[in-house]
Amino acid sequence: MAELAAAEGPPRGRTPSPGPGGSPPGAARPPSASKWVRLNVGGTYFVSTRQTLCREPKSFLCRLCCQDGPELGSDKDETGAYLIDRDPTYFGPILNYLRHGKLIINKELAEEGVLEEAEFYNIASLVRLVKERIRDNENRTSQGPVKHVYRVLQCQEEELTQMVSTMSDGWKFEQLISIGSSYNYGNEDQAEFLCVVSRELNNSTNGIVKEPSEKAKV
Fold first, then answer.
1. I want to staple 115 with a disulfide (CB 3.0 to 4.6 A). Which of 130, 160, 181, 208 is the partner?
2. Span 30-72, pLDDT tens digits
3. How far apart, in whole angstroms, are the C-alpha atoms of residue 111 and residue 107?
């Protein structure tokens, strides 16, 4: 009789003790309860939290794996990672933006590539940031590099202070070179210097460099 009772299972009124986390032993944990999400983007794995991926509620990533009953159907690989057929090189800036809200693009990455991915994942705030970055870079490129025109002025030691203080607008001091003493008045040698000054070429009118004013000459 004892063997028969053991075969029939536990006594009536008793249920199996729950395992860790409150679930019965052997029970599968609901996918939505997992904090971490594994993504397979073009063959490269990324791991992030559901909270991070849900920063943009209307984004592709949120609809894929954060909503109950996701609108988007997606296959998973043998590890359970969501399969996304996109370039993994440009996914890093996308995921980092969701993590900390900053746009960081490595020098070897094209901003247009990040923009393409931001539009695909439907992250509107990131799309605006990348477009602003591209527009700012285009404006700097169109202006071209700043060019300078240089002048070398010769003066004596006692004239240095006056020359620098009365230099005309747009000119700035670059370098002072001592060339020794060429004159002797009484018992005092007068040291001479070459003073290098410059100003931006863009400050001139119609790209024509004008000669320095009298204040820039000695």
1. 130
2. 444 578 999 999 999 999 999 999 999 899 999 887 765 545 6
3. 9
Give the closest residue to 196 by CA, choosing from 143, 145, 169, 160. 160
Residue 183 phi/psi, 5-degree rounding, is: -120, 155
- Rounded to an integer, what is the distance from CA 129 to the centroid of its chain? 10
2 or 84, higher pLDDT = 84
How is residue 175 annotated by DSSP? Answer: E
Q: Which amino acid, one-letter code, is at 51?
A: Q
Instruction: Give the number of other Cβ atoms within 10 Å of residue 89's Cβ.
Output: 17
Q: CA 27, CA 15: separation in Å to the nearest integer?
A: 14
How confident is the model at residue 112, as a pLDDT?
A: 94
Query: What's the mean pLDDT when you consider all of the chain?
Result: 75
pTM: predicted TM-score of the whole model, two decimal places: 0.51
Q: Strand 36-41 relative to strand 82-84: parallel, antiparallel, unpaired?
A: parallel
User: What is the dihedral angle through the alpha carbons of 64, 67, 73, 76, rounded to the nearest 10 degrees?
Assistant: 60
| Predicted local confidence at residue 36, as pLDDT | 92
Q: How far is CA 95 from CA 33, 51, 60, in A?
A: 21, 12, 12
